[in-house]
């Protein structure tokens, strides 16, 4: 396998193929096939997102993929932000359609034409829905699996509130949800308030979740947006308040994508392959029976262990293929399985199992009656992944004292006045764009370029 | 509510709206919004389909939604079958695309361009995959929720085999899987071998699962297709057999759609609303606390019962809304919840619960220590649904002795020689098309039209 640190791009492409995550050889470039193992991981990520959304009383819906040009053009600034990236359906059968239909690049315009039918009174608020669907972007840039694709696996939550204050509370709730999702995926991130020129088209402001990715770039894995009344005024979304007055709702959105998987692959993986947090591992525990004289009994014992673990609710499999144990170890390590159980004649005779953690070298023997301890070891693997990703974050994100400092950095913090002019200067000299002000940072300092008052900000080359 | 028997179409439209299954007011006609309750039911149906597919070692994948014209046109007969129904993407941003891209009407051409890359040797066979995605049809006919829509929630399984014989075994395995799915959905069906002119474009033969729907039409809820080497020869899908010879694979497919939900709604429902088999009920048990003097204690007791049932693995909810019990009963009956638990002061005092089954009028009291019995009652509801649907099937599907007999029937059986001529005659006189020969029927008789030798066949008006 490629060395991850030295050749990240090659390593990334290789592991994606070896682990069977996606196949990029489809006829249409940038539209990739979700292969079984990759799709399973993505579905497990979806399950986590659903769980925390449902907990906060979001309702799941699913909107049509097509949006008419008429719907899209209601909010001019919004459609302008996407106009170069939209796939247009113009024909049905042999007919030319009366109105062009867009493959959704995002669903504001699809949903908000319906909101006036659903939201009538203050008792309908807050209104909170989400969907997990594909969105489409006619990318002209170089595509990269899970990072920049033309068909994107996407989560989008949309809310409507009685006023801006209530919408702001929603923004905080999003941050809570995101914190939990990031924790299950063992991801460290920076919360960056995007500059005016880089916020979502139509938003009052946008906060992005940026992770450092090996390969010396940052990856935006998610965003939340405060829309205020901007869309409501264009799509005419009003409600009757307690006093019988008609008011515009305030709105927010929260978006996540398959980039979460890209981050998991890129940040946690090592030269052996993937390392998966146990919540999203399609196989959490793999059992490898070791051939020997009493292989029949070893196999029978292994299967009993598997059944016990299945009954405890784990995703567990047994590798009975006709390969050497060494081959199997490598194969499952490459696939990122957090825990391996080895069972040979000694384990059989002593009624125990040998555990190997994906993140550690040592092996651990536990007696069968302590089988429930696997839970702690799965958590240990997660803790290891978290420490590793925190260390990676801290090792690589420094505070720059001068523009020169920023040149050889990865993602880098600096005080910045917020002007496009200073940001452009930084980008020209260091190839790093302003990701924005660090969310909720209370410090202040002099802009690294112009010396005016500045806020603590993050800069990086982006994917 | 509308009377189901007398005004089926109105009843169907009304219950879909009342229960919150779909919203048809979206800008693009025939593309509907999956509302939360409808989407949950559909996802539970998907879970059943996944379970039985996975059991038979199918692997889930997900292909891009777009298929280039080049890919589609590899199999001429296939694309011809769809050419009037395809949505074409012709523009990306402001560019006109070099080649038109189809929104998948089905995925043969997307998948089979990849099969030669994945299938090389006999050890790769049988090759079995499926996906659950949306497919698109530019329908010119009148659309109807879940029955005829332009964006269709779709399950498609695709297999490749070493020879025709092995593919035929796959066809039998499909029938096994389908039998299990139909049983969980409590559906009765006819297995009809479609006539030549009505088989899937590109198939050697097609078997359809047809259910009688109230409204005097039959509904095709699923199909399986034997392709033989037809697609393999066009898409050049070959493998090296044990002797080192290159051979074409034989292929099959299995398709199911959101019509399964249409059948569940239409066949099982009654004048009170939906009736859901418990496997696909988003709420399997609803608890209604009855107001009274000791309401605090009743509520506390009700919540304990809910927690107990949740721990047993049931999807259970408690209705604490500020409505009368009668209103709540009607509401949850309309939503098709199989079991209701009523808890008032008597239940609290005597440490018991009162059960009401969606399919029966009587109420049943059980002591709290027998709470596990709810499983039997859920099964009783399913048995009631099954009896009802079997009775509906048998009451309505008769054997015709003459063409005149067929006129006032629903779906109707008759012997038929298999000729298009006789089928056309039947259709002209009775408005019923040939669904095909009854699968595996061993009897024979004289064609009801021409008197020649015929096979037992099914006829119906179709949706």
TrEMBL record, chains A, B:
The entry's cellular-component GO terms read: aminoacyl-tRNA synthetase multienzyme complex; cytoplasm
Reactions catalysed according to its record? tRNA(Pro) + L-proline + ATP = L-prolyl-tRNA(Pro) + AMP + diphosphate
Which EC number(s) are documented for this chain? 6.1.1.15
Could you give a GO molecular-function term held by this entry?
proline-tRNA ligase activity
Enumerate the Gene3D superfamilies for this protein: Anticodon-binding domain, Bira Bifunctional Protein, Domain 2, C-terminal domain of ProRS
Where in the cell? Cytoplasm
- Kindly give the InterPro entries that the UniProt entry links to this protein: aa-tRNA-synt_IIb, aa-tRNA-synth_II, aa-tRNA-synth_II/BPL/LPL, Anticodon-bd, Anticodon-bd_dom_sf, Pro-tRNA-ligase_IIa, Pro-tRNA-ligase_IIa_arc-type, Pro-tRNA_ligase_II_C
Which keywords accompany this UniProt record?
Answer: Aminoacyl-tRNA synthetase, ATP-binding, Cytoplasm, Ligase, Nucleotide-binding, Protein biosynthesis
Q: Which SMART domains match?
A: ProRS-C_1
**EC class of the enzyme, as a word:** ligase
The record places domain Aminoacyl-transfer RNA synthetases class-II family profile at: 36-277
- Chief localisation class: cytoplasm
**HAMAP family listed in its UniProt record:** Pro_tRNA_synth_type3
> Which function does this protein serve?
Catalyzes the attachment of proline to tRNA(Pro) in a two-step reaction: proline is first activated by ATP to form Pro-AMP and then transferred to the acceptor end of tRNA(Pro).
Its family remark reads: Belongs to the class-II aminoacyl-tRNA synthetase family. ProS type 3 subfamily.
What is this protein identified as? Proline--tRNA ligase
| Native species | Acidiplasma aeolicum
**Taxonomy of the source species:** Archaea, Methanobacteriati, Thermoplasmatota, Thermoplasmata, Thermoplasmatales
């Amino acid at each position: 396998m490629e060395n991850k640190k030295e050749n990240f791009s090659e390593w990334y492409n290789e592991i994606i193929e070896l682990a069977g995550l996606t196949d990029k050889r489809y006829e249409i470039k940038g539209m990739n096939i979700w292969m079984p193992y990759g799709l399973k991981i993505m579905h497990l990520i979806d399950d986590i997102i659903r769980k925390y959304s449902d907990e906060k009383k979001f309702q799941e819906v699913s909107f049509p993929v097509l949006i008419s040009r008429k719907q899209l053009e209601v909010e001019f600034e919004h459609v302008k932000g996407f106009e170069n990236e939209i796939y247009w359906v113009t024909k049905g059968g042999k007919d030319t359609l009366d109105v062009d239909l867009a493959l959704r690049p995002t669903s504001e315009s699809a949903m908000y034409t319906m909101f006036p039918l659903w939201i009538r009174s203050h008792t309908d608020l807050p209104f909170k829905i989400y969907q997990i669907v594909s969105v489409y972007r006619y990318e002209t840039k170089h595509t990269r699996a899970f990072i920049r694709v033309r068909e994107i696996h996407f989560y989008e939550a949309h809310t409507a509130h009685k006023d801006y204050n209530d919408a702001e509370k929603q923004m905080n709730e999003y941050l809570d949800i995101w914190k939990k999702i990031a924790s299950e995926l063992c991801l460290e991130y920076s919360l960056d308030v995007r500059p005016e020129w880089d916020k979502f088209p139509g938003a009052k402001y946008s906060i992005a979740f940026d992770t450092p990715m090996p390969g010396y770039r940052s990856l935006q894995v998610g965003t939340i947006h405060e829309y205020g009344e901007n869309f409501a005024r264009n799509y005419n979304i009003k409600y009757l308040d307690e006093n019988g007055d008609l008011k515009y709702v305030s709105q927010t959105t929260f978006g996540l994508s398959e980039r979460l998987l890209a981050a998991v692959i890129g940040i946690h993986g090592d030269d052996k392959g993937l390392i998966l947090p146990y919540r999203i591992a399609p196989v959490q525990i793999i059992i490898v029976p070791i051939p020997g004289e009493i292989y029949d009994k070893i196999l029978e014992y292994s299967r009993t262990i598997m059944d016990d673990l299945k009954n405890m609710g784990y995703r567990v499999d047994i590798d009975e293929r006709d390969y050497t144990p060494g081959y199997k170890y490598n194969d499952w390590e490459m696939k990122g399985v957090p825990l391996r159980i080895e069972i040979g004649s000694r384990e059989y005779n002593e009624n125990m199992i040998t555990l190997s953690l994906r993140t550690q070298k040592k092996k651990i023997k536990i007696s069968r009656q302590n089988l429930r301890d696997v839970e702690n070891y799965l958590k240990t693997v997660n803790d290891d992944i978290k420490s590793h990703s925190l260390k990676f974050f801290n090792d690589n994100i420094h505070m720059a004292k001068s523009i020169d400092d920023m040149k050889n950095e990865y993602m880098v913090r600096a005080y910045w006045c917020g002007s496009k002019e200073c940001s452009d200067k930084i980008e020209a000299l260091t190839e790093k764009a302003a990701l924005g002000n660090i969310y909720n940072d209370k410090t202040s300092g002099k802009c690294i370029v112009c010396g005016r008052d500045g806020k603590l900000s993050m800069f990086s080359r982006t994917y």
